[in-house]
Amino acid sequence: EHTRNFYQNQIKEGEALVNGKKAKPGAIILEGDLVEVQQKEAKPLDVQPQDIPIDILYEDEDVAIVNKPKGMVVHPAPGHPDGTLVNALLYHCRGRLSSINGVIRPGIVHRIDRDTTGSLIVCKNDLAHQDIAAQIAAHRVHRIYKGIVIGHLREPEGEISMPIGRHPRDRKKMAAGVPRGREAVTDYRMVEEFRKNGSYSLVEFSLKTGRTHQIRVHLSAIGHPILGDPVYGPAKCRFSLQGQCLHAETIGFIHPRTKEYMEFSAPLPEYFVELVQKLRGGGTR
Predict the structure, then answer these.
(1) pLDDT, tens digit, for every residue of 218-245?
(2) Which residues are tagged catalytic?
């Protein structure tokens, strides 16, 4: 009744034994092998609740939809021990979050980057988490992003299909078209072009897959990186942005309990709106 990642984590943590010995996730099981799974007792959460204001777009007993602000890390990680969305959720939800992703990422079924803003699904129990995770794995969660890219796309709309994997030389980055990369497909639609105050475009993106940094990697690969992207874009940005100008605007999914389709949209953040106005001030097409 659990997800693939749940079982993979059990194996990595040594909770699954083959013939009495720890085995790697890719180990081949042979006829006659004895597989034992040791279920550890649930650990108390060691991430502390913090009274951090968060924008809740929707909430019920199973899920919450959060409008994540720019600069907020989703869950604790090296260099970000607190002040994260998880810390805020533990306070807001009084600890009522799914436990599948452990003590560091309770309730987190998917993520968006620290400097990407917008809609994020939070699961408040394991039933909801398993259901939403299955929808994400089957590419049934509808996700629409808006971003400002450098330059003008050759076609007003289209599909970018390039596998994405770990960068061969810089393990902190992802790259498109690498050997053994995973399938990644991004649809795009040009919304508005800005011409007199530089060459930029407001673009809408629809994710068919959900790879790490997918939109950022794909747009950089075709020569139109997201404006302000410190990893996949130019070293300097004339607008002094704090990270990429990318917003997870809309998210839609089947509710895990009612089985009804639900869709929510997060308004563009203030910095994004101001930047569009600044770009329009020089003229648009």
Answers:
(1) 999 999 999 999 999 998 888 889 899 9
(2) 113
CA dihedral for 103, 108, 109, 111, sign (positive or negative): negative
Cα(279)–Cα(196) distance, integer angstroms: 8
Q: What is the pLDDT of residues 48-67, one digit of tens each?
A: 899 999 999 999 999 999 99
Alpha-carbon distance of 196 to 49, in angstroms, equals 48
Report field, pTM of the whole predicted structure over 0.70: yes
| Cβ neighbours, 10 Å, residue 137 | 13
